[in-house]
Amino acid sequence: MEFFLVTLLNSLSYGLLLFMLSSGLTLIFSMMGVLNFAHASFYMLGAYFAYQIGAYTGFWIALFLAPLVVGVIGAFTERFGLRAVHRFGHVAELLFTFGLAYVIEEVVHLVWGRAPVNYRIPETLDFTLFTLFTTQYPAYRAFMMLVSVVMLITLYLLLTRTRVGLIVQASLTHPSMVEALGHNVPRVFMFVFAGGCALAGLAGVLGGNMFITEPGMAFAVGSIVFVVVVFGGMGSLVGAFIASLIIGAIQTFSVALNLSLLDFLNLFGLSISEDSFWYSGLSITISQTAPVLPYLLMVLMLIIRPRGLMGNRET
Amino acid sequence: MNQNVSLRLSEVRKSFGSTSIINGVSLDVFEGERHAIIGPNGAGKSTLFNLISGRYGLSAGRIELKGQDITNLDPQNINRSGLSRSFQITNIFPKMSVYENIRCATLWSLGYRYSLFRRISTIRSVRNRADEIIELIGLGDREEKLAGELTYAEQRALEIGITIASGSDVILLDEPTAGMSRAETNAAVELISKVTRQKTLLMVEHDMGVVFDLADRISVLVYGEIIATGSPSEIRSNQLVKDAYLGTQEGVH
Amino acid sequence: MARVFSKKRIIFWASVALSFVLLPLVFDGGFSLSMLSQMGIAIIFVLSYNMLLGQTGLLSFGHAVYFGLGAFVTAHIVNFIDQGSFWFPITFVPIVGGITGLLFALVLGFVTTRRAGTPFAMISLGIAEMVAASALMFTTFFGGEGGIVTNRTAGGVVAGISYGPQIQVFYLIAGWCLISMMGMYAITRTPLGRLANAVRDNPERVKFIGYNPVRVRWLMMTLSGFFAGVAGALATINYEIITAEALGLMASGNVVLMAFIGGINHFWGPIIGAVLVTLLQSALSTYTQAWLLYFGLFFLIIILYSPGGIANILAMHAPVIKARLFKSLASSYLIIFLASVPLIVGTIAVIEILYRGGAILGMSSLVSWSSSLVLIVVGLVVFRFAQRRVKSVWASLDLELRKRGFV
User: CB distance A90–C118 less than 8 Å?
Assistant: First the structure.
């Protein structure tokens, strides 16, 4: 019971983080038709910038500044990179973001080295919020959830209640029409891209000290974010939300479950000796298969229902 | 003109969601005839073509090709049974040369499947048929050009070439003269008569000059239903048709 | 059928074969030989990849799966030979890798090729991640972290060849490279190869000329898997060790870069990419830690300025040279080259400064930084000017070429 609740809470905070990342990716995809391979790289930059800025100004200012810097970099990327490649088609855009991910990772190696950096949870948040049975629940996780929720509500209100938001929504589906109405659609694209990157950066600020901050983090999280976006349906925010929670839960639970088929069989009094051929296969625990599960789900979804849970665009 | 029915549509219906586009179309196209479908925009002409050629599935009804039921078959199966169609928006292979565009279209009918063990340039029958078609559509001197670099009219000619390359008996042409000048249209009409000799032609057209020039019979499609079918003179004088589409101008030709 | 063995064709492939034979004599030395071997493997791999991308329009992010699986199966087979379980000449062992790749591509491809475009790319990525993640689970087959070690001299000496010395392995790779190149080229000349191009250009239309685009993709995927497996087998033989990295995402990403940098629109384009990238990876990595960064930047520049890759750039100049108009380009190219020198040097300097912690070439940190930045700024300015000049020369050249019928 305790295990279940704690893991559930953990998967919730992780899922919300995933949603912050995947919502930015979904917005960018909806608007520009480009799957931004470098999205997780901006997540990584957020973490590193927060670390670097925080060393001078403390966590709270870094929390505010780092996503902004990442957003600005995103704007530059769109303006001078993506826009130039746009005329060569979607594949070229995809590959551009792919190359960008490479380059960002190497630049991070360059500036901060290959070892993880000591990006720590700020002291003000480093306490136990409450104790569930025997597990202490860190306040920082709750903080992460709080910021995620606030950010996402803000985003939702921005998109649905403001004029800018309406223009963005319209540009998502009918950019040429919006342009014909006199709006600067390329600039809207740039803002959305920058906004998506800033969101990723914010996720990095939050996640970087909870999990580890190292050059490999972009790659690790990036793949999962893709799974989320594809599973939920490319272009659907609601789908991304549901998928984030599901995938987040699957990852969090599976890593913690040291049960294998063998244990299941043992429940019924069946057991197999270690020398048997089947032993190694059956003794694989769920936690050992954990890395594979999200991808397995994604592949299954792509086979059965390529547009994902709630998507409406196949490409 | 034979009385064999090459293409038979029976009570064909198509809806997209709750929007009904084709509302019970029944039509017999006879072997060797040139049959035009006209009608106002949005009447469903292209949708009808898409249904016949297998691009869309039917919501209800039947389609028979030379007696064989082709309802809801995949496009490639319908094509293999002897029906080819062209597209209103040019649908060619832009990064391949004119010659290669036509050549690919000849392969199945000449007996080549997903063949791996022949060098395509040495297959005489393919080469001859491709040369023949390219001559026919008048692109002989543009043969090596990439299809994406042709002029609009040349691409429309190529479009027709791809359609007839397989030697299908039943040809569907979707607005073949769309966007053409008067001179280009005349050339296109000549081309179409030439290539569809002895074949069954079903054509969607907006240019009334072309329609009355080429067609043996005309069907008028309005709001997903055929309101009249008949010879050009019958259609011209039909009141329903005049009200719905042709207008009351004298000398529409 | 007389055309199959046309003189021109025979002379061409014979000269390729001859140059393969002569290469190690020109580039002798252990380092060169191992790099040439690496290039041979990379060429087969990247050409197999381009069967999917350049020829059929399938962007895959998981092609290394077939390479890697071919390599692992080959490793186990070679070990069986070494233990004496059965005998099979090492020379023909790559067939085993090829068949492995083919079978996996057949099975996985059946599922993946039903979609194209972005869904295909994502599903290929997903499968690659799945296989890479499973590699750590099934340690008997994949050998865990350490991988599987083999002995390429297994099976003893055959006709004087033991595959102990690198030169023998090079010729093995060169031979398979030649056969693979010829095979993959031949495929492009078949009906299937042409249909693949049609599917790349317009899969919808292919249905209306009687073919199922999914079937075409699936067949091309299967064939491509074969050659990828051959490359993997040769890698096992060459390095005598194979780890899970070989089927990982890094390797898959690498082949994408190679193909694009070389140019996917020409058959021989990716070969340029394979050679260049292998060269950069081996040579650069001895001089600087930043080679992967340079690599990535180079890729970005290619995507931004010439998505058709180096092959496209070369092909673009062919009509110019034929019309003997290259002179008009020469001066503007010279200027742009001169302009890019300070730009490139400055950028490299900055990167190297960062990697080496503040200073280079014995200069003080301040001098290093300021001179690099000055170089970059100056370079940028002159480059923009030169770029504009090149563009205008090309514009008038283009007009002239069209007028004269060369384009």
Answer: yes
Contacts of A30 in chain C (CB under 8 A): none
- In words, the CATH class of domain C12-272 is mainly alpha
DSSP C322-383: HTT-HHHHHHHHHHHHHHHHHHHHHHHHHHHHHHHTS--TT--HHHHHHHHHHHHHHHHHHH
- Name chain C contacts of A280, Cβ cutoff 8 Å: 140
pLDDT digits (tens, 9 = 90+) for C332-362: 888 888 888 888 888 888 888 877 776 667 6
Answer for the pair B7, B22: CB distance below 8 angstroms, yes or no. Answer: no
Distance from CA of A226 to the nearest CA of C (A): 8
B127 touches chain C (CB under 8 A): no
In chain C, what residues touch A96 (CB-CB under 8 Å)? 300, 303-304
Nearest-angstrom CA–CA distance, B44 and B23: 10
Task: Report domain extents, chain A.
Answer: 2-216
Query: Which C residues 246-265 touch B at CB under 8 Å?
Result: 265
pLDDT band at A312 (very low <50, low <70, confident <90, very high): low
Q: In angstroms, rounded to a whole number, what is the distance separating the alpha carbons of residues B3 and B28?
A: 10
Q: Cβ(C60)–Cβ(C131) under 8 Å?
A: no
Closest-CA distance, C5 to chain B, in angstroms, reads 12
| pTM attached to this predicted model | 0.89
What is the overall mean pLDDT for chain C? 88
The answer to whether the CB atoms of A102 and C296 lie below 8 A apart is yes
Q: State yes or no: pLDDT of C20 exceeds 80.
A: yes
Taking a C-beta distance cutoff of 8 angstroms, is the pair A189, A171 a contact?
A: yes
Segment A80-115, tens digit of pLDDT = 888 888 888 778 888 899 899 989 988 888 888 888
Q: Which band of pLDDT confidence, cut at 50, 70 and 90, is reported for residue B9?
A: very high
The CATH code for residues B5-246 is 3.40.50.300
Tell me the domain boundaries of chain B. 5-246
What's the CA gap between C256 and C59, in Å, rounded?
9
Which tens digits make up the pLDDT trace of C99-123? Answer: 999 999 999 998 888 888 877 888 8
Which DSSP string corresponds to C35-93? Answer: HHHHHHHHHHHHHHHHHHHHHH----S-THHHHHHHHHHHHHHHHHHHHTS----GGGH
What is the model's pLDDT at position C215? 95
- Give domain limits for chain C: 12-272, 323-404
